[in-house]
From TrEMBL:
Domain of life: Eukaryota
Protein's name in the database: Interleukin 17F
Subcellular location: Secreted
GO biological process, one term: defense response to Gram-negative bacterium
This protein's record includes keyword Secreted: yes
Gene name tied to this protein: IL17F
Keyword Nucleotide-binding on entry: no
Protein family according to the UniProt entry: Belongs to the IL-17 family.
PROSITE patterns hit by this protein: PROKAR_LIPOPROTEIN
Molecular function terms from GO: cytokine activity; cytokine binding; cytokine receptor binding; protein heterodimerization activity; protein homodimerization activity
Taxonomic source organism: Microcebus murinus (Gray mouse lemur)
Amino acid sequence: MTVKILRGMALLQSLLLLMLGLACLKDVAAGKNFKAWNAAFPKPDSCPPLEGGNFVKLDIRIVNENHRVAMGRSFQNRSSSPWDYTFNWDPNRFPSEIAQARCRNLGCVNAQGKEDVSMNSVPIQQETLVLRRKREGCSIFFQLEKVMVTVGCTCVAPMVHRLR
């Protein structure tokens, strides 16, 4: 069981590093966010220049992109517990942009479209892994970090505590 978990973690770490590499190459090719990325971690003058020609060429185009499932933008609007998205941007994190849902109401929306405060609208949260960029001397490295992301909202019955 422990071996399976370790293999799964190693695979996850490899996939996250691959995604990081693809995102960096995509940003370099597009010329976007790269200046912000470098400005956040300026290289000290005392660091030696990078040498060597060990580079990998990657094709970052998505294969079968047209096979994605189409989901209407109104998905969060049709819920009995609607939400809006805000975007959190951090240049030292991969992915650098994460969408966070925020519930619109304290109560839930009934069939007539009115808020029903006898029910509660609560956030749905998912813990996910991101890569955090850090500097140690002349070296830049990435460390796995857990973050909580609010992905939507749902309608629940309120918790009632009776006093005796």
